[in-house]
Amino acid sequence: xxxxxxxxxxxxxxxxxxxxxxxxxxxxxxxxxxxxxxxxxxxxxxxxxxxxxxxxxxxxxxxxxxxxxxxxxxxxxxxxxxxxxxxxxxxxxxxxxxxxxxxxxxxxxxxxxxxxxxxxxxxxxxxxxxxxxxxxxxxxxxxxxxxxxxxxxxxxxxxxxxxxxxxxxxxxxxxxxxxxxxxxxxxxxxxxxxxxxxxxxxxxxxxxxxxxxxxxxxxxxxxxxxxxxxxxxxxxxxxxxxxxxxxxxxxxxxxxxxxxxxxxxxxxxxxxxxxxxxxxxxxxxxxxxxxxxxxxxxxxxxxxxxxxxxxxxxxxxxxxxxxxxxxx
Length: 328
Prior knowledge:
Layout (H helix, E strand, L loop, with lengths): L1 E3 L3 E3 L16 E4 L3 E2 L14 E8 L33 E6 L33 E8 L6 H12 L5 E8 L6 E2 L4 E2 L5 E5 H4 L7 E4 L7 E5 L12 E4 L6 H13 L13 H7 L2 H5 L18 H28 L1
Parallel strand pairs: 3-5, 4-5, 5-6, 6-7, 7-8, 8-12, 11-13, 12-14
Antiparallel strand pairs: 1-2, 9-10
């Protein structure tokens, strides 16, 4: 899709018929807006190992097309049916529309969204290793968040990297641009680590979005310890209760980790040789990176200390209020 100025745009329909004849094609990257329904002309990609589509859109009312006949209700499962026959995909990146956030919104397709119960997840090979999905939903169908998470956690047991970002499409009907808020209440979504703990091979787990409008509550954070290969965790840490975080920290400190510690701590053997106490005090909690962007290193221990200080600040503030009331 190409834009001309602020109010005009043009779409080029792409016919993917016969592309499956490229029997040695292993990598495809679509870096500009792609009309999702165009993908229905794609049969399958037999040798494909890596696929990245940034980003899918559908023609909707907010785009004010010249002819109403081109309007599409949403991105649907049928648009991605070709994945069902592409069994060798190991790395997949999909962007369903552009996610609106509270800070800086540069980009397009904020009014595009996916609608369905996550059936497209079942089209993807269960042997996939890396999955990165950013998905706009219809705010009137918020329960689809759980449908998608459940399907992913029950299907892709060989995943090594999982990145998820959810949002809701914006339009004149659903969003108040003056107040910068949705007209309909955003429901709280439960992020249950019991579900994610099924993905035993995870090295990287990211469920986070910059300036997100999503409302989350994380439960069973202590189940993180079951992910014996996890090294990177990007999360909405403010959705974890301090009590749950503290419990998880203690579980890690008591953990008898029998995996390869040098996978976390490259100089582990050297430090143990220099100081026998190093082995005794060593914990993965000090080596799991919690940096949101994963381009710097911030251990979970540092994240815990931040939350501990904030919890202490809140308690102190509460005690002061109680004292003031008693004086009155």
